[in-house]
Amino acid sequence: MQLDFLSNTISNKVLLALVYIILSLVVAFIVDRIFIASLRMLVRKSNTDIDDKILNFIHKPIYYTIFYFGLNIAITLLEFPESIVYYLVSIFKSVLVVFWASAIFKSFIIFIDWTSDKGRKNSFVQAKTKSFFENIGKIGIFLISIYFIMLSWDIDVTAWVASAGILSVVLGFAAKDTLGNLFAGLFIMADSPYKEGDYINLDTGERGYVRHIGTRSTRILTRDDIEITIPNSVIATSKIINESGGPYEKERIRITVEAAYGSDIDKVKQIMLDIALSSDKICQAPKPRVRLRKFGESGLNLQLLGWIEKPEGRGSAIDEISTSIYKMFNQENIE
Q: Is 302 helix (H, G, I), strand (E, B) or coil?
């Protein structure tokens, strides 16, 4: 009697299709409970919760993908007309693509947020470049989803891809400089050789405060209060001296003086040091110092080394200290 029941079950295609659907649901449930649960146990050992969030997004698409295979077999067994099978399978594939696209999109956003976190200083994706990468990712996921949906409906995408390739080449040549500045700006923001408010020097001669870092250009305010806009592609290939970089913004200045041979070297050093210590433009820590650098052709070459608070104060500090040294040397009859 059991053999007759099994034979009737196999011959009854509707019932067999239902069995495949139920089996696919059971397998999907088992995978969801066991496989995903095992992965969750592994990712819990990590230091971040990003993998837990991504698993929450992708476990449903995995479940529905397994269910789709059983559903596909069931539709085939029912021997519907080809047109109905085509539409049903295409619809199910499209829905599956939407599920996966949604999960990948959410996972991508979580990953970008985690990568651009302020505590991750060495990350390529920074707060300023976050929106750009988000938009690029959204466009990429959308285009790939459209591609697979078109494949689900057996649409030949070769001509579309070829047209898109030709169009991208034409646009690339037409906007070569703009794209160069764009990518240079992204790398500047990500690599952070300087930031807004820093005092920088370029080997092209520009010098001043960084007012704004954009995706196309960087704006610098010079000491003459003139704003200069420099394309990022130019800055990307230039040598950059960031005077505001390092452990602090202080900068050391050097003032070289030549005293005639026969001068009291200790007195000369003390005069230069006292002038530096009494100036409000020179930092007291680190302390200024005077060094004998070399014996020149006509005198002793001494150098005063002192620190200033801000890079832009270099000119006025050197002027003040040099003037004071000259006056004091005249008073002390030091040639």
A: strand
Alpha helix (H) ranges present in 116-157?
130-152
249 Cβ partners below 8 Å, 6+ apart? 199, 243, 309, 310, 311
Q: Count Cβ atoms below 10 Å from residue 296 Cβ, excluding itself.
A: 14
Q: Chain centroid to CA 208: how far?
A: 25
- What tens digit of pLDDT does each residue of 17-58 get? 787 788 888 887 887 777 777 776 766 666 677 777 777 788
At 320 the pLDDT is: 92
Helices then strands (H, E): number in the chain?
A: 11, 8
Whether the Cβ atoms of residue 236 and residue 188 lie closer than 8 Å to each other:
yes
Q: Which of 258, 242, 303, 250 is nearest to 276 (CA)?
A: 303
Instruction: Count Cα neighbours of 305 within 13 Å in the Cβ-side half-sphere.
Output: 9
- Tokens representing residue 175 in the block: 């906007």
Give the C-alpha separation, 28 to 35, whole Å. Answer: 10
Q: How far apart are CA 148 and CA 155, in angstroms?
A: 10
For residue 290, name the pLDDT band (cuts at 50, 70, 90): very high
Rounded Cα distance, 294 and 300, in Å = 7
pTM check: above 0.70 = no
Give the pLDDT mean for 241-258.
84
Dihedral sign of CA atoms 128, 132, 133, 135 in order: positive
311 DSSP assignment: G
Ramachandran angles phi, psi of 312, nearest 5°? -70, -10
